[in-house]
Amino acid sequence: MGHELTIEPLGQVITVENGQTILDACLRAGIWLPHACGHGLCGTCKVDVVDGEVDHAEASPFALMDFERANGKTLACTARLMVDVVIEAEIDEDPDQRRTPVADHCATVARIEDLTHEVKGVRLALDGAIAFQAGQYINLQIPAVAGTRAFSIANPPHEGTYVDLQIRRVPGG
Ligand code: FES
């Protein structure tokens, strides 16, 4: 169950599940919205709500000020839909752009090697092939560890059945 979200100026309509953020739903639908922190802190993902009502949730009062809320702005990375909603976003349409929807995968550790005294090369074998472009990253979630960590993918895109990560040991990290 969820609500419909219309994204202008694209005119695309997607379903946003209850509790899902606008940003997450768009990225999973292959619609790229500008964003950075992903946690309601930087304001990069600000969009206009032109119809409907959203819950701003954990949006920082500095990233989304009171007058902006009053003027129909919200942060796509925190906003949840209360009803069907129409947003207007700043989307640069690049004809050469390749859209890769965000997706979840499970993986097992296939290899760990020492690259330097403080950097490990970790290969994760995926449950299915993924499509990605050079420069993209994954958010890694480890069972029993809170939150996610972002790591750049270190292998080339034609090797889509696994990801290689270069992970530096950080004291307390
Ligand atoms: S991405 Fe930083 S506030 Fe949404």
Query: What radius of gyration results from the CA coordinates?
Result: 18 Å
- Sheet with the most strands? 5 strands, mixed
CATH superfamily of the largest domain: Beta-grasp domain
Overall 3D shape: globular
Gap from first CA to last CA: 38 Å
Strand content is: 35-45%
Small-molecule binders here are: FE2/S2 (inorganic) cluster
Name the structural class. mainly beta
Helix content: under 10%
Largest beta sheet: strand ordering: 2-1-7-3-5
* Count of helical stretches: 2
CATH topology of the largest domain: Ubiquitin-like (UB roll)
Give the number of DSSP strands: 12
As residue ranges, the low-confidence spans are: none
| CATH class descriptor name of the largest domain | Alpha Beta
Topology as H/E string? EEHEEHEEEEEEEE
CATH-scheme architecture of the largest domain: Roll
